[in-house]
Design a protein that fits this description.
The chain has a five-stranded mixed barrel with strand order 2-4-5-8-6. By secondary structure, it is α/β, with parallel strands linked by helices. Helix 1 runs antiparallel to helix 4. Helices cover about 40% and strands about 25% of the residues.
Length: about 250
Amino acid sequence: MKHFRPGLVPSLVVALLLPLLVSLGFWQLARGEQKKLLMDSYAERRAGEPVAVAELLHNSDPAFRRVSLHGHFDAEHSVLLDNRQRDGKVGVELLQPFLDQASGQWLLVNRGWLPWPDRRTPPAFSTPEQALSLTAWVYVAPGTTFQLHADPLQANWPRLVTAIAPQKLWDELGRSGFAYEVRTEAGPAAYQADWPVVSMGPEKHLGYAVQWFAMALALFGLYLYLGWHNAREKNHGSDHESTQHV
């Protein structure tokens, strides 16, 4: 041990931080694997045959399942989801209530992204008046609970929000509706509907894991350097004192 003297405080710091950094790295690897399995499952559901709304309502896990709709939009109560970007351009997503005729159920349909380059003028959109047949899929944000965020003074429609919970909208309108947003596929009522499955893919978790492991390695390397440097300094001082005594 005379060739390695890191000191008590550095040893305690490393003993506390090194296991933490390593465990965080392995946690990110596990999260990445979970996200990969989740995305594979969602991709399989997105490729499945669409079901009727009545069948969807009795499904305990509706996330990312496709659904067939036939009915009409409610143009009066449109919602604009703010702070959405596509290809570096700012814009909004247009969501409108849709009454499915077969089930009598309201669903909040996200019709896609609209550019909004000039905030001084409202985004331009139109709503089909005739009955439509649509194919959509259920969007459930992984691990996130959305809540309706709107300016209480802004009671006019269309309403600009930053996040939305469909059930709160149905409660406000006094309607029976599906509790999740559904996102339309390409079709006559869709705007730009290129939807990412999740906001953060497994590759980002792998990147975070590499960062944690790199920090752990750097900490351990610094600890070794400090121990050898202190030992060398102490041995050099001892040799110098011995020379003086001789």
